[in-house]
Amino acid sequence: MTAAARTAVVTGASSGIGAATARKLAEAGYRVILVARRKDRLEALAAELPHAEAYALDVTDRAAVDAFAASLDRCDVLVANAGGALGTDPVATADPADWRAMYEVNVLGVLNVTQALLPALTASGDGTVVVLSSTAGHGTYEGGGGYVAAKHGAHVLAETLRLELCGQPVRVIEIAPGMVRTDEFALTRFRGDAEKAAKVYEGVAEPLTADDVADTIAWAVTRPSHVNVDLLVVRPRAQASNTKVHRER
Question: Of 22, 14, 92, which Cα lies nearest the Cα of 58?
């Protein structure tokens, strides 16, 4: 089946990595279903792309996710990208509400859309699930406890699903980006404090961009059907680990 006859669902598609991924998959010929909470942004992006549709959805609302899945005629690719971080408080003083919110979107949100779309992905005869985790899902750092815990959960979900689907016509791919500079991620984490958000990238010559990660996702998705990219960690050259980053003075 050609890409033009295939449907890709991208969650968190209203900005950043999700929007960039939607563009890349549309360029590759996929019909793209754009999913996020902000309908106006989705509709603006859909207007730019061939064969794109906007669907406003909160992935933490299971009933709404099930209704969305029922509305689709097919699904060949799911890019579970919706997620995010809140705060940088240490474990001793972190707000449990922040941890709960991060778990809801980064883990249960992925679970909701995966469970709801898995029948269609299997029925396609050649389905692909892409879970956007993070290098935070593979290593810890101070002040990141809640986000790290949630992304470890996303990693384990992908790894377990791959084991459970072995022998079925569905690939499970995990993409784990490191430092990516987008318009909203750090700003959301610091609750709109632009100065604190900017310091995350201060002195880093070339952090990854949303397009860099989208290229990686599109490459993995468009490999031959028998090729499964289990886990791909992608960082900027300046970042050796979650805690070691070269910053120019």
Answer: 14
Dihedral angle, C-alpha 221, 222, 225, 229, nearest 10 °? -50
Q: Report d(CA 94, CA 88) in Å as an integer.
A: 8
Residue tagged active-site, from 55, 103, 147, 201: 147
Write the DSSP assignment of 204-244 as a string of letters.
Answer: -S--B-HHHHHHHHHHHHTS-TT----EEEE--TTEEETTE
Q: What angle do CA 240, 87, 62 make, to 5 degrees?
A: 100
Of 139, 133, 135, 3, whose CA–CA distance to 79 is shortest?
133
What is the per-residue pLDDT for 185? 86
Reported confidence tier of residue 184, pLDDT bands at 50, 70, 90: confident
Note if 30 is an active site residue. no
Tens of pLDDT, residues 141-169: 999 999 999 999 999 999 999 999 999 99
Beta strands in 24-114 (DSSP E): 31-36, 52-56, 77-80
**Tally of CA atoms within 13 A in the half-sphere of 21 that contains its CB:** 33
**Is the four-CA dihedral 13, 178, 98, 111 of positive or negative sign?**
positive
Polymer length in residues for the chain = 249
Sign of CA dihedral 55, 20, 204, 233: positive
Question: Quick one: average pLDDT of 25-42?
Answer: 97
Please, what is the average pLDDT of the chain?
95
pTM: 0.95
